[in-house]
């Protein structure tokens, strides 16, 4: 069997991604998001408070030594906190950035992470309504395009009690003794990477299925 080419994967976004990177550093069993280093090279770059336009214009975040094959982006949540910015405008920004990654950075597959809700006592009730609208529009926009830009649903993060949120009402709950939801979040992105890998390199399909089981 011919050796698989290593696929470069960039995980980009706001504080969710920064915290994910810290979680992985603190837990050796999660190194490289538990993906085979002979097949995947994971690069995680997250900045707290990051907005779409800041990400799109960040040389520091978007400069890589090698071309990235797959890019997962978690962005838009901070933009929604400004109620004066229409939802459709934020969706346009995200889709334009995804297209830039494809055309300007020659990324083969971009996955846009589903935006997650926050506690109403922290952000007001209208924020979560805007999250739902944004996700619907992003999903629709992605389905109307070529499948090199896809919308990714995070399973297990839509319960009405918002039990996945930490005490601050914004970020995914995580501590040394409470890792359930951060591991679930990592697993969701890991699954997204394997899904994209299979799309751009179908010959890796069986290997990816094995990786999906080995969690």
TrEMBL record:
Gene Ontology MF term list: hydrolase activity, acting on ester bonds
Highest taxon in the source lineage: Eukaryota
InterPro entries reported in the protein's UniProt record: GDSL, SGNH_hydro_sf
Pfam families: Lipase_GDSL
Name of the protein described by the UniProt record: SGNH hydrolase-type esterase domain-containing protein
Source species of the chain: Pinctada imbricata
């Amino acid at each position: 069997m011919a050796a698989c080419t290593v696929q470069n994967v960039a995980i980009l976004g706001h504080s969710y991604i920064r915290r994910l990177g810290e979680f992985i550093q603190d837990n050796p069993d999660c190194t490289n998001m538990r993906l085979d280093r002979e097949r995947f090279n994971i690069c995680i770059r997250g900045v707290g408070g990051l907005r779409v336009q800041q990400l799109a214009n960040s040389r520091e975040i978007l400069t890589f030594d090698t071309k990235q094959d797959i890019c997962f982006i978690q962005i838009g949540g901070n933009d929604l906190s400004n109620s004066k910015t229409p939802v459709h405008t934020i969706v346009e920004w995200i889709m334009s950035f995804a297209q830039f990654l494809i055309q300007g950075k020659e990324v083969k597959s971009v996955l846009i992470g589903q935006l997650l809700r926050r506690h109403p006592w922290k952000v007001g009730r209208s924020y979560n309504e805007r999250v739902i609208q944004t996700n619907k529009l992003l999903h629709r926009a992605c389905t109307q395009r070529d499948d090199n830009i896809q919308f990714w649903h995070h399973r297990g993060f839509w319960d009405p009690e918002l039990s996945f949120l930490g005490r601050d009402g914004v970020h995914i709950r995580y501590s040394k003794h409470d890792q359930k939801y951060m591991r679930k979040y990592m697993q969701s992105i890991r699954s997204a990477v394997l899904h994209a890998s299979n799309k751009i390199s179908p010959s890796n399909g069986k290997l990816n299925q094995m990786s999906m089981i080995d969690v």
